Protein 1
Amino acid sequence: MTFKKRFVVLFLSVQVVLSADWWGICTPTEICALEGTTVELQCSFTYPPTQDGRETSVEKRVWFINGQNNHPEDLMLDPEYFGRLQSDCHGDRCNLTIADLRQSAVYKFRFTTNHPIKGSYTILPGVNVTVTDLRVQVFPGYSRKDMKCLSRCSAWPASSYIWYRNGEEIQNANSQEYSVEYYSKDSYSCAVRGHEHAASPPVCVYGSCHQVVYDKRRICALEGSSVDITCSYSSGGYIMSKFWFRPDRSHMWKNPSIPEDLMSDPQYAGRLQFLSVPYGRWTLKIKNVKASDSAQYRFKFTIYGLEWRSILPGSILTVTAVQVQVMAVRVEPSHVVAQLVCHTQCRPEHPMSFEWWQNGEKKFTAAAGPKLEVSLYPGEYVTCAGNSINSPRLYALSRPSVYLSDAAEILEGRPLTLNCSTNVSASPKHRWYKKRHSNDEVLGEDPELVFNSIKSSDSAEYWCTVENQLGKKTSETVFIDVQYAPRSSLLFVNPSNVTEEGQFVTLTCSSDANPASSYTWYKDNRILTQKAQKYSFISIRPKDAGTFCCESVNKYGRFNSSSVFIDVQYAPKFCLVSVGTSCEVRKGASVNLTCSSDANPEAKYMWFKTNGDLKVSSESIMNLTNVQPSASGEYYCVASNSRGRCNATVWLQVEASPMMAAAFGGSVAVVVLVVLALAAFLVLRKKSPSNKCRESSESKAQSDGAPNCGNTSSKEEEDLVYSKVSFTKSPDGPIYSNVTPAPHRRLMHVEEDEVEYTTVKSADHVSGLKPQEGADVSELYSTVQKHHN
């Protein structure tokens, strides 16, 4: 609570009450202040730290004006002071702030410790607060009259005063005294600067003058009652018109500088009556007053067509309701026990009689007075009546419930309202909460929590509380699940989309959707059978390579991920070499040696000659021109990439004369026929276009273009495989042979095709056999390796 208007003049004498073990002091002990201002009282105290062998502590602090020192009536429970007090206690000091000061009284402070016998002490004599008003006293003189601004308090400091002539401020008149001409026809008033609302009533210096004096500066009335606001007025001329007005409603008129008669204000229609008997007094009667009627009211009149204006305050009306105030409450398992007081914000002029009602039935007569102790169960209520004006109902609250405006599915973007409902008609204080991680977020204090367009981030637990003077009740939590269509779809590859053959690879499709998405997988624009969130390869193979994407779907929509290409890499394998000419290589001729392999990424090649491991080329095809006999020998190539390597060997024989070539060729022909027959019987499953030595054949792999991810079109072509067999004879006798497959055609759906590679190689144990010695070719044997990929 904050009290803004404060004016305190202190003229004090300090009195200390001492004893052997304790003492206390209030400063100041005397305060004189204007009516309606704010004052602050201060008391400090001390007490023995131990008494009779036990440690001492303060348990209760009380300010009071009524009751005996040992039986004080707590000022905080006095209805006359409701809303006007603020007590602030820290340690051994207690302050009391009183706003809107209305009456003189002696305020005392008492504290109680935990000692059962010697634990209560009252600080005496307390603080004597005198409430005063101002008046102008006129002193007669020879040619002038002197005036003085007086009150029951001593004078305020110089230049603290304001003087008014006919209701208008006199400039530079700041002292407590002011002089005027003897025959002045004007009225005069004074005030203390900063507290103009407490100005004195105007007085006439000589005979009659222009003045308005209000009978009461403050009037308190109960809602629904009637109130009279009366003033006395006089003038030095003929009054042509007069009326009442409200300064705070001047902005509503066409000309704000000219107040308007309340009779023309629709707020008061049918509720005003004017009484003007006897002459010189005028009464404004307001019937069935409302809280909105609380305001300052002033009286105006015009003389000879000229309006007499005054800025002096009029009568201040406060319209109050009868209320039930809870002084103490004890919560039991099934009900509450409350100590109640029937009160108003201000005390009406006429004495009040009280009645108490419980659940609509009169339970307590007027003799019960304004205080009551009662037990109330959830849903029950109590009211009080003062001068037949009923207070609002005070309910013992039941546990509230939360209701949703839409009990069906809650879709993002739609409106939603949560209602906190109780079983009482009087509206308590509401508060909404949202569970956010470990904290509870307060959302509002209205009975309804409205989402004009609910978002997915609003998904959470919600609950509400209702609270009044008898306690607080909390509802059960309600979970709001905001649903929405997939708005993202992401494809993740673990460990990477570039992987090595044989690794475990997992594809995961992640989406933001509620309810959770189901998933459809695509490879090279063909729907796969897998429907789970993850798609795994236990040991990935080259045929598994391709372009993948996933689609997230729930009942509100769908969303496709971006495409990811899975590249399955492996070391070179099936290294093969071939001689690009006829079997006879004569001196001076040219010959191409070709090295090939199956690899991803594409292999790099290097050629070596066995004698000395001399590097002779870095290309897959090594071209030899104008060969000489010295070029004869064993050549081998190495195919390598980042995943590994493989190698293959070939023997090149350069003949010095045609006869030697012919002899060598005849011997070789027999071996060729035997091995070709064996290879044709055991190996070749596809038709070969040629069986000539060193004749190469090529096939070009073709594939269809890939449509966008999500389509299911594909085209297959016939798979043709060609093979090539070549043989050479070294001078020492070893025979080298190899079968060279042409590049096979890779189709889009590699997992449905099977490619066979065949290699025919002579056995090592015949390496010393020489054909010219008539060796039996049947002793040769070949091994056939069949590779499936």
Note: Residues 525 and 709 are 4 Å apart (CA to CA).
Protein 2
Amino acid sequence: MSETPYRYTAELAGRIEQAWQDRWETEGTFHAPNPAGVWAEPDKLAGRDKLFVMDMFPYPSGAGLHVGHPLGYIGTDTWARYQRMRGRNVLHTLGYDAFGLPAEQYAVQTGQHPRVTTEANIANMRRQLRRLGLAHDDRRSIATTDVEFYKWTQWIFLQVFNAWYDHEADRARPIAELVDEFASGARPTPDGRPWADLDAAEQAGVIDSFRLAYLSEAPVNWCPGLGTVLANEEVTAEGRSDIGNFPVFKRSMKQWMMRITAYADRLLADLDRLDWPDKVKAMQRNWIGRSSGASVTFVVDGHEAAIEVFTTRPDTLFGATFMVLAPEHPIVDAITPGENSWPAGSNHAWTGGAASPSEAVTAYREAAARKTDLERQENKDKSGVFTGAFAINPVNGARIPIFIADYVLMGYGTGAIMAVPAEDERDWDFAKAYDLPYIRTVQPPADHDEDTAFTGDGPTINSANDEISLNGLNLADAKATMIDWLSANGTGTETVTYKLRDWLFSRQRYWGEPFPIVYDEGGYPIALPESMLPVTLPEIDDYSPQALDPDDSTSEPLPPLGRVTDWATVELDLGDGPKTYRRELNVMPQWAGSCWYEMRYLDPANHDRFVDREVERYWMGPRSASDVGGADVADVGGVDLYVGGVEHAVLHLLYSRFWHKMLFDLGQVSSAEPFRRLYNQGYIQAYAFRDARGQTVPADEVEEVAGADGDIHYRWQGEEVSREYGKMGKSLKNIVTPDDMYDSYGADTFRIYELGMGPLDQSKPWETRAVVGSQRFLQRLWRNAVDETTGEIRIVDTAPDAATTVALHRTIDAVTRDYESLSFNTAIARLTEYNNVLTKLDAVPRAAIEPMLLMVAPLTPHIAEELWSRLGHADTLAYEPFPVADPALLVEDAVTCVVQVKGKVRARLEVPADISEDELRARALALPRIAEETPNGVRTVIVRAPKLVNVVPA
């Protein structure tokens, strides 16, 4: 029998942890009361500030969690547990982002319904997370695939569909109010006719052009090999599908769109009101890409057509020597001559060797469709073809050729540019490749290389006609003068534009939220009434979109829902008698559920509303001026702390802000933003290994061997492999699972090791062998309270000595500050130091160890609860007050002062902590060593009492 049967081992830790997890669940320890609804407990809210803590919720992968996934979850759990002990009413839970392509693809491969695999994956992840001891309110956990959840996703879509953006009021309004304005004449119709003179179809067309959700022909990533449109993030850098490696083509299709661009200015402006990392704010600003300049109209020579371009540099218009359109631009077909000849002046570089403009354009478009936007932007070898048409430069009447080129994107600006090669590097490269002229409109400095574009600032040159001269003006004045001239001549206007495009909201898949939309016999979309929600997914056997010829870019998608004929066609009475309608066969993108899930956490048992108004206002409403620093601070409300990876900086966070602001405008929520504070945790990295082919091999099968050269070498199946660091994941075959950690060390050891590796917001290397250090810390803590031989408590009720008391209160003070700032690694270091103080005592006093248990409880809750219970406490410590430091014990009686001469340490002396600057200066200058260092006297003495004196010799 072991001499230490009560030692804290992985086996004992496992028993303790699972027992406490069961108790927490049975007693509902972490259930957060609401102010209203089924979970209303007003008496528990009195005197307790609320705190809403959230993690970006996971996708329930079949592989489950690896040790990199829980880093943020452990961090938020530790902070939430600490805040609960500080008297806060804390809401913390976790749901699952469960729709999406991976589950659908797995269903295609196995024939198993994606709901079955998704629910199995969720169950596995719930098991793993429960074993971690997270203090979640389990009643509030949701999955986006729950019918009761996506019913409200569909309801929110209807709010978007039935709203428009009033730019004068700068907010969204119900579409019914727009109809009333047209009907009353308060708002003129687009063509000026009275509203009553428009027939029903014309009225519907006008209203649809204002809706925040609308149908439009939009450029998409079409993957015929998968039979679906893909999001940008589902397309590889090589222009192929991430799943299946099929070709992906850019083409236009009719899709549901969200008018997020209407909110561009507010999305930008309100970033300043958020407590978010600067890098994330910068990424959103860049993504929105607000630019001010002018829209300029170029008439196409010989056609009743014009091309509108946006430019931030209208002052350079005199230097525009050609135009470039995106290959997808809708005007290309109309201006490209059909005859088999090229206009006079066309050279071989312009034609690409084709017999006619139409042949050249067709071939070039097919080639461009195979490239991703990233490839098109980053390609330094400019390519394009002449359309055979010319435009008229409005400032000088010059006839300039019109090209198509893939470096111009239809999704940015108007899909057309005026090319000014002398002042733009991309245009310069294109002009050189295609033998096109350049005209400098900005004077470069004398030392500028004449064979390059000049993109800097300087006086305007070569820019005058009979009506206007910009010559000699600086940039700002030249822009303003040109914009005034364009406006006066009807060829341009001052304009603000954005890189942000409206949100493509359709997917040709099965595993997603169905749209609450049907089409009448004329193909007109009609929103279903709220009483008909939810529109549930039908049961089907074949989950895949119909795969088509992978290389046929002209094919049309056939969504899997189209095969369910008795669902796709439905008879409904929408107020004018039973009629047959066709359902929308596309589904919403995976982003839909994550746009609003934080609000469902608040009130998931509510069947009548997506969230009770009072409940939302309590958890997410704006705080009072006194709580946020004074009356001048306008609080936006939202989740108090949102933790997740920086990879979601743009899409998820931008989309959710858009939906939330729309709901705010319509009076559905009280908070103007969904997430008041954002924190990005780092990644867990791990060693990965590659063989001679460059392929990754399983990291857990690699052996370390000592080489003849004395260095460590790595071998896999007898073959030497190279080692590198990378983000832990399946692709690098370097996964370590939490289950491995639970079995080998216990959850508390895993928790404290992961948070102790370094700052939460930085990436850190995983090293399994180092976990034992964290286990030893907990073993010492256990031994300080429990006799390993008998299992008896060895705590004494005598008062701690003065030194231990001082150490305790200084630890409380430091750990409190560390927890507040999420500096968990330094809190662990301070707790380790204090634990070592206790270890050196002959007997540990209760008054010394009980505060230690309370301090360590947020980090390692199971061992803390167990020892707290063994010390005679019947109730959980989850709500025990966090220790408070005695300020009188934080004053150091004596400190070591460093004395420098010209910044170099030359002496040290012990001085009282409250010594004055004059006294400290005198003592430092009296030191013999300092006198030796300053034989010619002293010029300056810099004193930072009580710890530093810097002497500057004369």
Note: Residues 152 and 610 are 6 Å apart (CA to CA).
